[in-house]
Amino acid sequence: MHSLWHLLGLKDTRRSEKALFFSTIGLLIALIGVGLSDPNLLNNTLNGAFDWVLSSFGWWFILLGFVLSVITIFLVFSRYGDLRIGGPDAKPEFDVFSWFAMVFTVGFTSSVIFWGVAEPVSIVNSPPPEPIPIAGASIESLSLAFMYLHNILPGLIAWYLPFALAFGIIVYTRGVEQYKISSMLEPLLDRDEYGWLFWIVDLAALVAIIGGLSTSLGATGQQLAGVLSGVFGFESSLLTYGLFALIGAVFLGDVWLGLRSGIRNAARATVVLVLLFFAILVVVGPTMFILNVGLDSLGIWLDNLIRLSLYSAPTNGGTWPQQWTSFWWAWWCAWGIFVGSFVARVSKGRTVKETFVVLGVAPAILLWVQHAIIGGWALSPGNLEAITTAMNESGYPAAFAAGLLNTPLTGLLGIISVLMLSGYLITSLDSAVFMLASITLGTEEPNARNRAWWGVLLAALGIMTLELPGARALEAFSAVLALPFTVFILAIIYATFVAAREHFVNDLDVETDTLLTRKEAGTKSGLKTDSSAPQDD
């Protein structure tokens, strides 16, 4: 039995941690099994659950996103903004570029490529119902404004930052015994007394993370398959699986290299490929259309940010905002649990305000540039019709490939796309298994064996999603599996303020004691303190 625990990376773990591992892995294996044996059954089940969640709780995700945005902005620009993750003496572990690269590639995967084309084209063809939320805006600019809303702000502020700051302040700055999502409740509850509740929170978090991973890995995998078949004509699924196997081999090598070498280097390379791809795309154009629609949509987005964030179309009887905004917020929620904890891990030594800049401001600028380029490219008169036709015939994954076929330098852009998407897969898998293993084992440095088991199963999950008949089932994973965890989000945010207040008060006490000690020492040595210095008449 000891050799089995060693093989699984569970040696010297508690019984509750073994139960957490096997419960989550069992759910994951069952999901993969159903998806491979009867993809239509899984597809229909997920779609039914997805419709129920959005119709019944779409309003909740929209409201929660707005509330979390307000709370996060208050936290960052309050007196707690200068708190340093890991404590006042913590030093940054990574240089700024490596830090940003890991945050960006882990936080956004291939959503810019997949949804950056599919969503604005879909909105142009199926616009919001009358009355439209922003009167007078062109549908092209409005579609990009919704894309910015869903994949830039308030998403960054509402979903990634709360988890990152909560995990950083409570786990690293305040200090806890176990490196788990449930540890964020320790400022409010005693783990010994409420151990069962802590275990349920960790299980709900792992399930939600898997839901977000399913959507993200599935979209990336289907997009990669779409480029291979649409651009290069490789229709054989065997080739796609072979490429996944190669990516998996590289990923396993990264697992053994760990956080500092594997994930960091893969993230840096991916960011370089991203910058190269978008630089070429804006040059081949249509450049003027991209620039003009990008600026126009920027004004609509920024001028109507609150209006678009709370848009719920209550009088038309449809579910247009729920199908888009509520889906995105559910995905952000599921993905944000893992991204936030990972960002906190690589942000030790940085202040709350610095983390806000690298996770909120810098990615927002880069994401706007990317979405303006790829969205303007997709909506241009020369590409819109071809992309729409491909989407109608083959679904969302075909949209990006159809645009590439209609663009100069197709082969070069296709090759860069394959490398870029592969980089997103590797960094997502790398960071995901790192955090899944950390949360399961309760340690900041999980062993490679446990990470490898998580990686193999997540890779199988990604392959399974290739068998699903449509992209809509991918959307369902995040919404359905994230809903239970939303119950704990507000408690975690409240616990963050409790921990921040405790740390702030303790720092003031330390500073006061230090000043008093210096004053007493100065008095004993015969030196005058500032208060006893002679005053001018």
Automatic annotation (TrEMBL):
Cellular component terms (Gene Ontology): plasma membrane
Protein keywords: Cell membrane, Membrane, Transmembrane, Transmembrane helix, Transport
Keyword Hydrolase: no
InterPro entries named among the record's database cross-references: BCCT_transptr
Protein name: Glycine/betaine ABC transporter
UniProt-listed PANTHER family: HIGH-AFFINITY CHOLINE TRANSPORT PROTEIN, HIGH-AFFINITY CHOLINE TRANSPORT PROTEIN-RELATED
Keyword DNA damage: no
Lineage: Archaea, Methanobacteriati, Methanobacteriota, Stenosarchaea group, Halobacteria
Main location: membrane
Species the sequence originates in: Haloferax profundi
Annotated localization: Cell membrane
Recorded GO MF terms: transmembrane transporter activity
Membrane-spanning residues: 20-37, 57-77, 97-118, 152-173, 194-218, 238-259, 271-295, 326-344, 356-379, 412-440, 452-470, 476-497
Topology versus the membrane: Multi-pass membrane protein
